[in-house]
Automatic annotation (TrEMBL):
Nuclease is among the record's keywords: no
Residue stretches spanning the membrane: none
Family: Belongs to the glycosyl hydrolase 30 family.
GO terms for cellular component: membrane
Protein name, UniProt field: Glucosylceramidase
GO molecular function, one term: glucosylceramidase activity
Length: 486
């Protein structure tokens, strides 16, 4: 289903309910006194897409009974500070963006990065050299150049850098940008191939560490500040595309002996280093090995993780996120990649794809995650380009034959978080009384609370939102997500 005129028809509602003040100070005490609750809803089998659906008031609350369904928010119990939500600007996304008309490019940028017309992304991930979501493999240096004398990001100036710059401009001049390598050059690896795994040879640990510094400085010279980098995308996966393997011990040693010291030496110690950057299944073991070593740990900002552990047919391992947070509360947690695999154009509007996003985001935030980054921000009508045929979904697709943008339900589900929960918000305690609903809440810096509630059942549900001795009663449609702002 194509969404012509989306920005006008779907998101032209007042932003007063969730506009943010510049002050980073939270009120001493949150209160429901004299507050209205603005409800925004996205629901299957309806036209509701981030649509204002109700304006409610608080009334006195009595002890809820077991036959009622309730969402309980306790504003005095505060947890992690929120960084933001965003997506990845890959070569694929940038190449497809370049094919859009100027009008559609503006619509697309506003849809993701404008806080009023769109969903207000504040994070951006990009790649160091090529990934599978590039039209072909490429490098910033000539093969065999261990001294990096031929280093150049000229390749990125055609598509990727222009899109990143426009995204930053649309976002108001700032996006927290971090970059990840998929593979070192072939001559640096045990298998002499940028594809199909292999390991970084020890004699190239230093040249490869130098490579990160070169990239960061080159991008910053382009006017794109790099907030952080991860060591390696998916370091335990031998892929048909660009990939490189590190055991936990290898990553630890590369971090403490090469990457960390090199960034410091190059004056880049402000750049955050993210470890792991792979699925939730092995993240606890990786954290244990790296963070138990003080020399490695001192260089690492936190752990990045993906959601693809379900490739085995098992369920998502949300509890592993909580285990890392419990064991290493001084380290941050960042969801660095997720997408719906196995592209099928017949499933553009397949609702379970969106519910996968909602479930992951609620669980990850409730387990301590500070930032959440989707994979490709844009792909074509085939789920690419991808040079090894690993075609996937994005929240927005472009039909390059018609020039139209296609908005999937996942875009709106992400928006229920990114539009209403803003940087420096603080998560507060939220619980539900029945498994029919899932919920999380954040207190924004302007004093407004945003509570996200998701209903993954086939039935409309009436529930109480209860805060201390106050409540309101809300109806949520079947297979829907709501954000309550109050």
């Amino acid at each position: 289903m194509k969404k012509n005129g989306f920005i006008i028809t779907c998101l032209c509602f007042s932003v007063a309910a969730f506009s943010q003040q510049k002050s980073q100070k939270h009120p001493q005490e949150f209160t429901t006194n004299n507050k209205k609750i603005a409800v925004y809803t996205t629901a299957d089998n309806t036209k509701l897409r981030l649509t204002p659906t109700d304006n409610l008031s608080f009334t006195a609350s009595k002890q809820p009974v077991e036959t009622e369904i309730s969402v309980f928010v306790e504003p005095s119990k505060k947890f992690q500070t929120f960084m933001g939500i965003g997506g990845a600007v890959t070569d694929a996304s940038a190449e497809i963006f370049a094919k859009l008309s100027k009008e559609k490019q503006t619509e697309f940028l506003n849809a993701y990065y404008d806080t009023q017309k769109g969903i207000g992304y504040t994070l951006l991930r990009t790649t160091i050299q090529s990934s599978d979501f590039s039209s072909a493999s490429y490098s910033y240096i000539e093969e065999g150049d261990k001294d990096l004398k031929t280093f150049s990001i000229e390749h990125d100036r055609q598509y990727r850098i222009p899109l990143i710059k426009q995204a930053i401009k649309t976002a108001g001049g700032k996006l927290v940008t971090y970059a990840t390598p998929w593979s070192p050059n072939a001559f640096m690896k045990s298998n002499k191939n940028v594809l199909k795994g292999g390991t970084l040879l020890p004699e190239f640990y230093q040249p490869w560490a130098n490579f990160y510094a070169k990239f960061i400085k080159a991008y910053e010279k382009e006017g794109i500040p790099i907030w952080g980098t991860s060591v390696q995308n998916e370091p335990m996966a031998t892929q048909t595309w660009e990939s490189c393997l590190y055991t936990a011990e290898q990553e630890r040693d590369f971090l403490k002996k090469y990457l960390g010291p090199t960034l410091k030496k190059e004056g880049l110690d402000k750049v955050k280093i993210i470890a792991w950057d792979h699925n939730r299944d092995l993240m606890v073991q990786r954290a244990n090995v790296i963070f138990s070593d003080p020399e490695a740990s001192k260089y690492v900002w936190g752990i990045g993780f993906h959601w693809y552990e379900t490739w085995t047919g098992a369920q998502p391992m949300f509890e592993n996120v909580a285990r890392v947070h419990e064991a290493y509360p001084d380290k941050k947690l960042m969801f660095t990649e997720g997408c719906v695999e196995r592209f099928d154009a017949a499933k553009y509007q397949f609702w379970p794809n969106a519910e996968r996003y909602g479930t992951s985001m609620i669980n990850d935030f409730n387990n301590g995650t500070v930032g959440w980054t989707d994979w490709n921000i844009l792909l074509d009508q085939f789920g690419g380009p991808n040079h090894v045929g690993n075609f996937c979904f994005a929240p927005i697709h472009a039909d390059t034959t018609t020039g139209e943008l296609i908005y999937t339900p996942s875009y709106y589900y992400i928006g229920h978080f990114s539009k209403f929960i803003r940087p420096n918000a603080v998560r507060v305690s939220t619980s539900v009384s029945r498994s029919y609903l899932q919920s999380t809440s954040f207190l924004n810096t302007d004093g407004k609370m945003s509570t996200v509630v998701m209903n993954h059942t086939d039935n409309e549900i009436t529930y109480n939102l209860i805060i201390a001795t106050q409540k309101t009663v809300v109806k949520i449609p079947a297979h829907a997500i709501q954000t309550l702002v109050y």
